[in-house]
């Protein structure tokens, strides 16, 4: 067990708390960097997909995990990011500009919808965000001049300073770069006053307010930042799909995003990443399992969404802290071995406010 | 001019007059206690002062400023901080984190500088940390600094909440039953701290409290209310000996 001897206040706001962080994250970084040289193209594509999910997951973690606003409509922000990016690319804007515009427009819409939503809590908030997602989907279907409607819209390869990123490994590094930037932003946010205010709102609105936190403004900020990150993920998602249809951003995608943050571990940054890996790998696992299952079960319609729902419910009941919580317990088990007691976490099976219906 | 003044404060909840024309003045640097039986309207008065409830009638002034219609989140900016009867801390955060949230009104950074954690944010954060450490030293919270609130015993939570209110650098502190749920030792500590808050930090305190020994130990003036109406006001002994107050607490002697 490592005991950190703190001698300055800076140690509490550093991102790398001790040498263990530096060591393990360097190894992880090196592994991610050499992966395209070692792995098959298929796996690189899947990893890029996981990166995109992780960006969206961080975007969703900010309102759901940190501010306590459960959103059932985050696919809408992915859609906005994707279509804005595709549209501006079609109009001949450079990729970096259209990527940024995708983030900014999505952030502005996020801030705008938070204005009427900010007074709602719990399940009413969730229903309102669901309605927002449906409205966005309908707008995409009907605004044919911009989105191509049900006929769809093709997305060009991203071009950065004249280099066309046509190869999958190039796209992989693009996603990795955006993920790292978003990750850095989220880490900064959580250790700064804005992130603290979000957490305060999540845990107790009444006392956040009497500490001088303007609830309306911070809820709007939370949704705007969330819109920014999710919009960026959407822009990358567009390139991954290569052809956009409104159906790609349906309710199921919103549920998938929500499942990601819940299964990963609400209220933690690790949770968003773990959740992205889980959600990214799950369809593959289901596809492989299908081969071994009897035909009647394997080809059962709605198997995938059904499994998503089941997993979500099981996690909420048995492991509210998600995969990251499980990992923390495992780590403690190793550190304390053979003295680990199961009861250590007994009291910590508490629920974040987001998970309760108020 | 008085420091803090509540004039004819009244609030109704659908026909029930929870507080009915109550007036009181608090002098700068004093400890003012509101006592009364359960449901007398003590916490309601607190919620009116910290602007959680809108009053039906009356006026509240603090440092010659009318705060009757101020939004809730701006009250603390004037220097009025409060604690809650049933502890409203941020459960999933550490003690340090909770105290830093107390510094919120002094944080000037914008969302964008926070996203990049600019050097100015870093500098401000270290400054806030220094201030929070002063409060930690004042209340002897060193052991609990990095612990999550949900793992702390009730008595410590009570003190953390007091600490969080102190972190806002208040001029007026509203303490809602600071000793409820504390054992005898903890209550004595609390009495010392409240006294220190007044004498060392020069903060004016308004508190609601049931524990009469604590009340008479620290209060300069006491207001007794019942059914939302003023019963008596004066020094702790005066109020304790007031027949109306004794009647409200113990009932009338049965003469047959």
Account of the 3D structure:
- Chain A has 358 residues and is mainly alpha-helical.
- Chain A has one domain (16-355): Orthogonal Bundle (ABC transporter involved in vitamin B12 uptake, BtuC).
- Helix content of chain A is 71%, strand content 2%.
- Chain A has helices at 10-13, 19-38, 41-67, 75-90, 95-117, 122-142, 144-147, 168-190, 193-203, 205-210, 215-241, 251-264, 269-292, 295-298, 303-318, 322-336; strands at residues 153-154, 159-160, 163-164, 243-244.
- The longest helix of chain A has 27 residues, at 41-67.
- In chain A, 44% of the residues are buried.
- By secondary structure, chain B is α/β, with parallel strands linked by helices.
- Chain B has 2 domains: 1-79 and 170-256, 3-Layer(aba) Sandwich (Rossmann fold); 89-166, no CATH class.
- Chain B contains 10 helices and 10 strands.
- In chain B, α3 (95-102) packs parallel to α6 and α5 crosses α6.
Summarize this structure as a short list of keywords or feature phrases.
heterodimer, A: mainly alpha, ABC transporter involved in vitamin B12 uptake, BtuC, 16 helices, 71% helix, 2% strand, B: 256 residues, Rossmann fold, six-stranded mixed beta sheet, four-stranded antiparallel beta sheet
Q: Any chance you could write out the topology, listing elements then pairs?
A:
The complex is a heterodimer of chains A (358) and B (256).
Chain A: H1 10-13, H2 19-38, H3 41-67, H4 75-90, H5 95-117, H6 122-142, H7 144-147, E1 153-154, E2 159-160, E3 163-164, H8 168-190, H9 193-203, H10 205-210, H11 215-241, E4 243-244, H12 251-264, H13 269-292, H14 295-298, H15 303-318, H16 322-336
Helix pairs in contact in A: 3-8, 3-9, 3-11, 3-12, 3-13, 4-5, 4-6, 4-11, 5-11, 9-11, 12-13, 12-15, 12-16, 13-16
Chain B: E1 4-13, E2 16-26, E3 31-35, H1 42-49, E4 57-62, E5 65-66, H2 72-75, E6 80-82, H3 95-102, H4 111-116, H5 119-139, H6 154-167, E7 172-176, H7 184-199, E8 204-208, H8 212-218, E9 221-226, E10 229-234, H9 236-241, H10 243-250
């Amino acid at each position: 067990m490592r005991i950190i001897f703190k001698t300055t206040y800076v140690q509490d706001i550093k991102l790398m708390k001790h040498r263990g962080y530096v060591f393990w994250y360097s190894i992880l970084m090196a592994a991610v960097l050499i992966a395209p040289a070692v792995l098959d193209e298929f796996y690189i594509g899947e990893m890029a997909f996981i990166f995109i999910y992780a960006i969206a997951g961080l975007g969703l973690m900010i309102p759901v995990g940190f501010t306590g606003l459960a959103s059932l409509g985050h696919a809408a922000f992915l859609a906005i990011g994707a279509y804005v990016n595709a549209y501006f690319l079609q109009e001949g804007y450079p990729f970096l500009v259209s990527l940024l515009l995708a983030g900014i427009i999505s952030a502005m819409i996020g801030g705008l919808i938070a204005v009427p939503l900010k007074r709602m809590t719990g399940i009413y908030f969730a229903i309102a965000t669901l309605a927002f997602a449906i409205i966005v989907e309908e707008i995409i279907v009907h605004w044919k001049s911009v989105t191509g409607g049900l006929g769809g819209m093709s997305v060009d390869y991203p071009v950065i300073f004249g280099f066309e990123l046509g190869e999958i490994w190039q796209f992989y590094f693009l996603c990795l770069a955006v993920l790292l930037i978003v990750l850095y932003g989220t880490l900064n946010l959580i250790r700064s006053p804005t992130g603290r205010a979000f957490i305060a709102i999540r845990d107790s609105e009444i006392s956040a307010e009497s500490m001088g936190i303007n609830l309306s403004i911070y809820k709007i900020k939370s949704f705007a930042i969330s819109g920014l990150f999710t919009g960026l993920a959407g822009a990358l998602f567009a390139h991954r799909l290569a052809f956009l249809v409104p159906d790609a951003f349906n309710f199921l995608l919103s549920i998938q995003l929500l499942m990601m943050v819940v299964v990963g571990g609400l209220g933690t940054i690790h949770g968003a990443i773990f959740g992205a890996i889980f959600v990214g790998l799950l369809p593959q696992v289901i596809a492989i399992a299908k081969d071994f299952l009897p035909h009647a079960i394997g080809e059962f319609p709605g198997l995938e969404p059904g499994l998503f729902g089941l997993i979500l419910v099981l996690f909420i009941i048995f492991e509210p802290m998600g995969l990251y919580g499980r990992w923390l317990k495992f780590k403690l088990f190793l550190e304390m071995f053979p003295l680990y007691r199961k009861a250590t976490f007994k009291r910590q099976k508490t629920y974040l406010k987001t998970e309760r219906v108020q | 001019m008085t420091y803090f003044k509540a004039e004819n404060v009244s609030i109704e909840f659908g026909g029930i007059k929870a507080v009915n024309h109550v007036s009181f003045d608090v002098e700068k640097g004093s400890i003012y206690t509101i006592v009364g039986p359960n449901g007398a309207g003590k916490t309601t008065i607190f919620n009116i002062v910290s602007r959680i409830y809108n009053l039906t009638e009356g006026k509240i002034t603090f440092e010659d400023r009318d705060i009757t219609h101020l939004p809730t989140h701006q009250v603390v900016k004037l220097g009025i901080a409060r604690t809650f009867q049933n502890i409203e801390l941020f459960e999933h955060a550490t003690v340090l984190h909770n105290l830093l949230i107390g510094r919120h009104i002094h944080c000037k950074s914008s969302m964008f500088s926070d996203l990049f954690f600019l050097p100015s944010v870093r500098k401000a954060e270290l400054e806030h940390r220094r201030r929070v450490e002063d409060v930690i030293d004042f209340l002897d919270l060193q052991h609990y600094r990095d612990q999550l609130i949900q793992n702390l015993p009730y008595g410590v939570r009570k003190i953390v909440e007091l600490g969080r209110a102190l972190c806002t650098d208040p001029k007026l502190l509203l303490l809602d039953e600071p000793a409820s749920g504390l054992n005898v030792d903890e209550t004595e500590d609390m009495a010392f701290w409240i006294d220190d808050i007044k004498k060392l930090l020069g903060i004016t305190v308004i508190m609601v409290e049931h524990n009469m020994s604590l009340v008479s130990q620290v209060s300069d003036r006491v207001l007794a209310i019942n059914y939302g109406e003023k019963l008596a006001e004066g020094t702790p002994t005066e109020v304790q000996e007031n027949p109306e107050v004794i009647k409200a607490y113990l009932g009338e002697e049965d003469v047959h």
